Amino acid sequence: MKYYEVEFTIEADEMLMESVRDVLSALAGEAGFETFEETEKGLNGYIQQSDYQDDIPQQIIDSLPFEQVAVSYQTTEAPDDDWNAQWEQEGFDPILIGNRCMIHDGRHLNGFSATDFEVSVEIDAHLAFGTGNHETTRMMVASLLDLPLAGKRVLDCGCGTGILGITALKRGAAEAVGYDIDEWSADNARHNAVINGVEGAFTSLLGDASILSTVEGTFDVVLANINRNILLNDLPAFSTKLAKDGILLLSGFYQEDIPLLEEKARTLQLQLIGTKEENNWACIAFQRAK
């Protein structure tokens, strides 16, 4: 496959740089970019040439929710080397969620054993978002560890690697359905379900929230770790799939975004019941108002 490399140059206060990179990569991922590389000046993104359109980088930049931040870009053809294989070979160190959960790549265990933890999730991250390294994923996993999931039906919106649905299944959920707009992610989630031994209970679909119209029934737990604007747009679709006493867990946004999401949820008769915060990233839980 042929790829373009888009070099995003970020001009921002040093304290903001990491946050801008995080949001930029999330928006670019939704636009079809498959992987990213942090640079001193910003972020490089890689997208298949067949998926690229000239206005995509500027649309991404225009969607950034930051003031006093300037981002420019330059697009070139990516070299035909196997940068994807190199990234996968490097893997990642184990990520621990308290003393209850370990997320690992199956190769770099650093002396830990899966049997040391209540939940062990192996992720072969083929460029999909969701290894547990990001604050939002960690908070979502931590929230799942505290929920009664035995026998529950779980929906993972924008599933990435499938880490959230797989975690839920390993905690006793009966079924997990995930979907993602990126074909690579949907395939990777299916692959990760296999290596975790939960493939029989995990369904991975390709599409956006509109695909929920083809999914039968409601879910006891609905999960979405996506950026704020998509969450605001897709909350009505999530609400239609939430069981009467179900829990909706959201992350992928900042603390200051909570009031916007709470206001939108309130119009759907959803009540805020819990919040988490890590480095200004937020994770919130809703339940149908009684």
Gross geometry: globular
* Fraction of residues in H or I helices: 25-40%
CATH C-level name of the largest domain: Alpha Beta
State the end-to-end CA separation. 52 Å
Fold-level CATH name of the largest domain: Rossmann fold
Low-confidence spans: none
Secondary-structure blueprint:
Elements: E1 3-11, H1 14-30, E2 35-38, E3 42-48, H2 56-62, E4 70-77, H3 83-90, E5 95-97, E6 101-104, E7 119-122, H4 135-145, E8 153-157, H5 163-170, E9 175-180, H6 183-195, E10 202-206, E11 219-225, H7 228-240, E12 242-254, H8 258-267, E13 270-278, E14 281-288
Question: What would you say this structure looks like, in words?
Answer:
The protein has helices at 14-30, 56-62, 83-90, 135-145, 163-170, 183-195, 228-240, 258-267; strands spanning 3-11, 35-38, 42-48, 70-77, 95-97, 101-104, 119-122, 153-157, 175-180, 202-206, 219-225, 242-254, 270-278, 281-288. It is α/β, with parallel strands linked by helices and 290 residues long. The chain folds into 2 domains: 3-86, Alpha-Beta Plaits (2-Layer Sandwich); 130-288, Vaccinia Virus protein VP39 (Rossmann fold, 3-Layer(aba) Sandwich), CATH 3.40.50.150. The protein is globular. The model has no long low-confidence stretch (mean pLDDT 88).
